[in-house]
Amino acid sequence: MIMKLKTMMMFKILTIWITVFLLGSLLFFPAGISKVWATEESGQTQMVTVTLDGKPLKQQGIQGKEGVLVPLELIRKGLKLPVKYDAKSKQYTIKRQNVIVQLQPTESGANATVNGSTQILPYEWKVIGDKPYVSVKVLTDHLGYTSSWNEESKTLNLVPHRMNDIKVSTRTINESIPEATIKVQYPQVSGLRSKEAEKKINTLLQSKADTFVKDALKEAKESQPSPNGSKYEYQANYTVTYNRNGVLSILEQTYAYTGGAHGNSVRDGLNFRLSDGKLLTLDELLRANPKYREIVDPAIKKKFEETEGYFGNFTTVGPNPSYYLKDDGVVIFFQLYEYVPYVNGFAEFYFPFTELLPAGANPFDFKD
């Protein structure tokens, strides 16, 4: 069942927007899903064996503060992905299929841009000698890999998956008025076999962005001045959390600061079937087990009850849970303040398909 709680604290991020925009999550990982958390050993570097589909790679990883770091040399030579370095911008670029990840090392980590979309949280980064290392999460978050950890042998196994043969690009809307600044990054897709489905998806994504900007401008003009006299700030961003098996999962997050101690963020999980552009509900994805709530409800309730500050009153995820796809399962999430204090961030619960569906059931084998 669910076994690990992670609260991501954002106090190292300097601006109020960044602090709130991606204020961390209560992220719970079920058994069988490997997330490696390192312990610092004074003056020592703990080496990690890395395998690719079970076959050892020549290059080794190291334990970092929040998991395994892999050398860029391993990505280039072991995984055979193109890795380029631009001396002028001091930026690394990694590419796999239609995904381009740009890494900009800083003192606090490597800032990432994925197909033009700014990822707010930096990835752990370390240089030993002249060899740069980056969190393996760059591979599992964006480049179609999953990972598993063997505690006994201290081995990290990477498994590559074929991503959908589509391209996700980023469009940006910038607005500045005396009352507010607005910056929105939103996705557009191309390369789908069905141009009708492509248009359907893009129309929805653009409409959501346009509506956010329109509502922000209206609120700023009607509600200013703010309590502390500062301009309002509105931001929106996204990340692709899953791009396989004919399904595209996008996690969008908006942020609004209208004065006071902090702003507020809202998340939206959008899970598209690429064959026709349909937005999939969790019930539709888990149709092989209509009683999946009997699994997730007690597990989530138990974790909430173990969480300090829990408000109480959780009974069920309800008829249309918010979710996104990740690795080989789903993440069910709740908004800020819904069941836990603001400082706890977004409550997220990961469940692998193996826990939710009958043996042999394929959530992506759509018959209709």
UniProtKB/TrEMBL annotation:
- May I ask which residue range the UniProt record assigns to the signal sequence? none
Q: List each coiled-coil range.
A: none
The Deacetylase PdaC domain covers which part of the protein?
A: 180-265
Protein's UniProt name? Copper amine oxidase N-terminal domain-containing protein
Query: Where's the DUF3298 domain?
Result: 284-353
Query: Which positions fall inside the Copper amine oxidase-like N-terminal domain?
Result: 53-156
Q: Which SUPFAM superfamilies match?
A: Copper amine oxidase, domain N
